[in-house]
Amino acid sequence: MSDTHLHVDGARVLADLHALRSIGAYKTGVHKPTFSDAHMRSLEWLAQRLPEAGLMAAIDGIGNVIGTSMKSGPKLLAGSHLESQNFAGWLDGPLGVVYALEAARVINPDPNVNGSVEVAAWCDEEGHFGHFLGSRSYVGDLAETDIDAAKDRNSGRTMREALREVGLEGRPRAIAERGRHIGYIEAHIEQGETLESAGLSVGIVTSIVGIWQYRITFSGEQNHAGTTRMAVRKDAGLALARFCVAIDDRFPRACGPRTVWTTGRITLDPGAPSIIPGRAEMLFQIRDDDTGVIERLENLLRSMAAEVSAQSRCSVTVELLRTGAPAVMDTTFQHAIEAASCARAGGRSIRMPSGAGHDAQVLATIMPAGMMFVPSIGGVSHHWTENTGDADIVTGAEVFVDACWRLLVP
Amino acid sequence: MSDTHLHVDGARVLADLHALRSIGAYKTGVHKPTFSDAHMRSLEWLAQRLPEAGLMAAIDGIGNVIGTSMKSGPKLLAGSHLESQNFAGWLDGPLGVVYALEAARVINPDPNVNGSVEVAAWCDEEGHFGHFLGSRSYVGDLAETDIDAAKDRNSGRTMREALREVGLEGRPRAIAERGRHIGYIEAHIEQGETLESAGLSVGIVTSIVGIWQYRITFSGEQNHAGTTRMAVRKDAGLALARFCVAIDDRFPRACGPRTVWTTGRITLDPGAPSIIPGRAEMLFQIRDDDTGVIERLENLLRSMAAEVSAQSRCSVTVELLRTGAPAVMDTTFQHAIEAASCARAGGRSIRMPSGAGHDAQVLATIMPAGMMFVPSIGGVSHHWTENTGDADIVTGAEVFVDACWRLLVP
């Protein structure tokens, strides 16, 4: 069933997204690091819009914007974030916030709906100061000491200094009232090309993958690159290169259908052109929504490392730096998005895991959560050329508002 | 024929080396960067010793110490350097200088020898400010503008500032008087383990290898490490790792018997754990004393790069950063060292190329040149644990002085 009387205003959605794009514009994208002037002006912009949706707006002590409804009945929380990566895209974050705002504007005044949509913009999803600090604060998973320790990864400015400078020092932090919400829903650009390449309009997120991160260190022997014969070298850099290639050869036979793995950084020590590296290090990451797959791959990684240590002239250690359990999206939310997609997007949807992390994984720890994706042109992400076609943005808004309505009016 | 009346004073050689070791001592090695206080005191120490060998000492405008003989007859130039790498060994440089001093002390006063040994300590062989600045100045291959541009690679202090601070500003630079010398001879620790592992005392250097250095750059596509499927990635870092492994697999079939190659530095861009590298770069070096071998390997490198660009999702460019032609050591000098080794070291010598660069390659551009090596314990180089046994040091001194004598009295 589609509630055809819901009038989603596509032009208003696009106008709002362009208004946010004009704050901190960079080429065709934006540059809005957390607590930058452009970020703060974006939060103010949202706070001024929320009353249009019958919501009371507040910016809390960690920079979350929360729009609270006074209407009776069930409440659905919806949102995303407003800061950006450095010199990045205009939709990563704002799309989900504007969809949530539109859902609230359409649904909350509707006298036929016994319930309302509340809107949130979570601070620092992009991780300038930490990992999901805003949403973690809201679910009660962020201590004052975590804030004390947080620093801007680029400037080194502490979070305390930043909060003071933007005028949020001393404000209380909004904490979720248990049982208030039937759940949380978030829309986001896909950041990949699954939807675009299949000609689809909507991704129904089944789970948000877990991220396992490792430091893999190779120890050999530093020596003179001119006087040390090839036969006696213990080149840690070469051992690392062979390991990368071995991973690429062996992981495909052990991974799941959507597992991804990445070596994002390599460091050779001492890193001089005339010195054989005595030590080499790689940052390695595996993502999957199945912890069984991750465990199998980690075992493979460790056995490969043991083989290298036993058979070659270099030794290898594998150190787990970070684990993040996958977050499963609520099936009721998946059904609602699918039904909305059938009603508003001709059913051009697919169920898929999210390879990127989102605030929804944090909210999912205390309430049912769901996510939907709209297509990304060329799958470009975290770059100012990131984009989505206007028609896809508007269709996505219609599906999102419809899904919110279905969740509130079962 | 050995001139058995030559009395090389091994105890004096060891005492001199220990005197130099005590200036700027660091653990069992030394820390004497170019123009440091410890380096300058080492130059003064040498200048004060030279008159004992009948030589007039001068420290010139670039920090070379030159001991000039007033004796008639042929003149042989001998030397090495007195600065060190940071926190490095006590013999790398000083050994050759003290051997030259000992040769001058033994030979110059000898009324039976119609000729003399002149002694030099070349400044900055270790390259704190540039490449062989002292010896290049002496052979006339260093312009004032080169000195203007030279900077300490660690502190950033300009060479002009350093020269002013140590009181050498404005002094004339000593330039080689063409035809004055029958040639140049230099002794050095091997910095490898060829001699030690074969139980030999002397390496007779046949050539000093050339160094070819390349920047190899891989271009792929930067993307999100969570949302980009393995099948569509263009991972520049992985392409680089595969290239390193391919070099290691294919170079052995194309190289010469003593070719060495090294990847000393790898950089992935942007180098973040959650981003697929769009660009990757490696510094790669090949050393050989045969330019034919180098050319063959460079052609192989370029054809491998073309294969990768044609067959994979990343493109590769190979950029030549630096070439250094090999320097062939004079055969008369090689014969003299070999005869001296037979007379003084039971013939326990081997002819070998030098994989490291030395001032002899610079002097070889204007006069015949020769080099000899003494063993390095464990082949350790450019580290404070670098060492050579006393017996090997003394034997080396005897062979060196004997070789100088043979070159002067043919």
What's the arrangement of secondary structure elements?
2 copies of one chain form a homodimer.
Chain A: H1 10-21, E1 25-26, E2 29-30, H2 37-49, E3 55-59, E4 65-69, E5 75-80, H3 94-107, E6 116-121, H4 133-138, H5 144-149, H6 159-165, E7 181-189, H7 194-198, E8 202-208, E9 210-219, E10 223-224, H8 236-250, E11 260-269, E12 275-276, E13 279-288, H9 291-311, E14 315-322, E15 327-328, H10 331-344, E16 349-354, H11 359-363, E17 369-374, H12 390-408
Parallel strand pairs in A: 5-6, 5-7, 7-17, 8-16
Antiparallel strand pairs in A: 1-2, 3-4, 4-6, 8-15, 8-17, 9-13, 9-14, 10-12, 11-13
Question: What can you tell me about this protein's structure?
Answer:
Two copies of one chain form a homodimer. In chain A, helix 8 packs across helix 9. The N and C termini of chain A lie close together (10 Å). In chain A, strand 3 and strand 4 form a beta hairpin. Chain A folds into two domains: 282 residues, 3-Layer(aba) Sandwich (Aminopeptidase); 113 residues, Alpha-Beta Plaits. Chain A is 33% helix and 24% strand. Chain A has twelve helices and 17 strands. Chain A is globular and about 80 Å long. In chain A, the strands form four sheets. In chain A, strands 3, 4, 5, 6, 7, 8, 15, 16 and 17 form a nine-stranded mixed β-sheet that branches. The first copy, chain A, has 410 residues and is an alpha+beta fold. The interface between A and B is large, with 58 and 57 residues.
